[in-house]
Structure formats: C-alpha cells, structure tokens
C-alpha cells in the first residue's frame, strides 16, 4: 500500500493581533515604530504518513491544531515549514459554507462547489439529482444560500463532496451541526467510502465514534503530534 498523505516536518505559525489605543498608535507613528506582533505556533514539526485505505481519527483538545493540520493537508493553508504531499483527488468538508457563494442559489452553488472540487459541468449535471436527493433540501435548492441554516449548508456541502468520487476525504467536526438522522446518513456514507478503500481523515470530539469508525488514531497536543496508534488507546489516553 502506498502513502497517499505525507506530512513532513510541518509547522504553522499565526501572528496574533492586539488591539491598541489611539494614543499608543499615535505614539508609535511618531516614533515610526510598528506594533509588536506575537506569533503563535499552531503546529510544530509534525510528521504523518497516511496509507491508502486508512481511516485516521485526528484527536486532541480544543486548540491543539487539528483543523490547522487538516487545512494544511487540503491546501487551504500553506505550512510555514515542512512539506505536504497528497496523492489523488481530495475533497474536504472543513468549514461550513466554505466554497459557497452567499448570493447564489443552492443549485448554482452545487455547480460552483463541484467545479472547485474538480468536477466537470457534465459530471455535476449527471449527479445533480442525486446530490440534491441526498441533501434532502429539494424545496430550497433555488433559494440563495445566505438564507440557509448551518445544517442546510452542511447537507449540501457533504452531498457535493461525496459525489466528487474523492480518493482522500477530509472531514472536520462540522458533522456536528447536522441533525441526528442526517449525521447517521453521513456516517453510513463515510463507512461506504471506507469499505471502497478510500482514505479518510476525520476530526471529531465524538471519541466513541472515532474509536468505532477509525483504523488509526493520531493525537495532537499543543501543535505536537504526541501519539499515533490504535484509536481505542488514543481515546483512553485522552480520557485518562
Ligand atoms: N487564522 C488564525 N490566526 C490566529 N490563530 C489561529 C488561526 N487559526 C488557528 N489559530 C490558532 O491555532 C490554534 C489551533 O487551532 P485549530 O483550529 O487548529 O485547533 P483545533 O484542535 O481544531 O481546535 P478545536 O477542537 O477547538 O476545533 C488555536 O489556538 C487557534 O486559536
């Protein structure tokens, strides 16, 4: 089996902004000094290899760097140090509403989002009815998505993403905004992708779900990868 995701020595830093008073800003301007900026390291020298067909659960407490790592793998963020290689078609469900234009209708956004994820217009048209049926928002498909609830966004985004036939599927916590029946439907679809041998990386705080669904658990703490192994062991460490 070959590696489909290779993360080598990846670090990501963010600069933290501070609000300053007008007096401070004026004084700095007179002294021709720029405001000091703190940098924060969200990911620190992370190495991770994911093999074709693995279902990896990315775990960690709030702020440990899970979403940042997923965004780096999907290409939404660029690492400051290190390199990332991904083989095959990648579909990511990372932020609700990302890749959607608020002023366009659901229908138009299916085409926009499908194109962003690499589908041709003909393929989107062929899959359109199935995409809408899976999302169960037929009634609102010609409504501008700025009027959608976060659950409706998720429904359409998940549906488009799974219909792109991805080799690598990245899913962040966003499933949490779906109602229970839709979450179950998404999980069934995720299991189907897994049984087809697709590679999955899932970020979730639902530890029981991760322990059941994933073949491997990876734990981040303060931007460091601190454990990589059996998901049940990683979950046990988080709970200890
Ligand atoms: N654009 C940004 N600018 C500044 N700091 C950021 C930015 N994006 C993320 N961070 C910081 O990086 C750290 C890691 O964030 P990240 O979203 O990756 O954590 P997470 O493990 O996914 O957390 P959660 O479980 O709460 O979703 C956090 O402290 C966050 O505030």
UniProtKB/TrEMBL annotation:
GO CC annotations, alphabetized: membrane
Keywords assigned by UniProt, alphabetized: ATP-binding, Nucleotide-binding, Transport
SMART domains for the chain: AAA
GO MF terms held by the record: ABC-type transporter activity; ATP binding; ATP hydrolysis activity
SUPFAM superfamilies to which the protein is assigned, alphabetical: P-loop containing nucleoside triphosphate hydrolases
ABC transporter domain ranges (all copies): 25-240
Family: Belongs to the ABC transporter superfamily.
Protein name, entry field: ABC transporter ATP-binding protein
């Amino acid at each position: 089996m070959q590696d489909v995701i290779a993360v080598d020595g990846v670090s990501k830093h963010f600069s933290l902004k501070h609000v300053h008073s007008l007096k401070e800003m004026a004084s700095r301007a007179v002294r021709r000094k720029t405001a000091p900026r703190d940098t924060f390291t969200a990911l620190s020298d992370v190495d991770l290899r994911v093999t074709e067909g693995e279902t990896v659960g990315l775990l960690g407490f709030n702020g440990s760097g899970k979403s940042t790592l997923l965004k780096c793998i999907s290409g939404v963020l660029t690492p400051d140090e290190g390199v990332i290689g991904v083989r095959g078609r990648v579909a990511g469900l990372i932020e609700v509403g990302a890749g959607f234009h608020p002023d366009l209708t659901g229908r138009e956004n299916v085409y926009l989002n499908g194109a962003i994820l690499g589908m041709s217009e003909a393929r989107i048209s062929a899959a359109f009815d199935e995409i809408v049926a899976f999302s169960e928002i037929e009634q609102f498909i010609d409504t501008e998505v700025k009027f959608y609830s976060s659950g409706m966004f998720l429904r359409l985004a998940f549906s488009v993403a799974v219909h792109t036939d991805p080799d690598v599927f990245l899913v962040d916590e966003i499933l949490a905004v779906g109602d229970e029946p839709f979450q179950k439907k998404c999980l069934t679809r995720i299991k189907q992708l897994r049984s087809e041998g697709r590679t999955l990386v899932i970020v979730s705080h639902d530890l029981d779900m991760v322990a059941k669904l994933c073949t491997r658990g990876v734990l981040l703490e303060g931007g460091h990868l601190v454990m990589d192994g059996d998901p049940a062991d990683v979950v046990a460490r988080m709970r200890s």
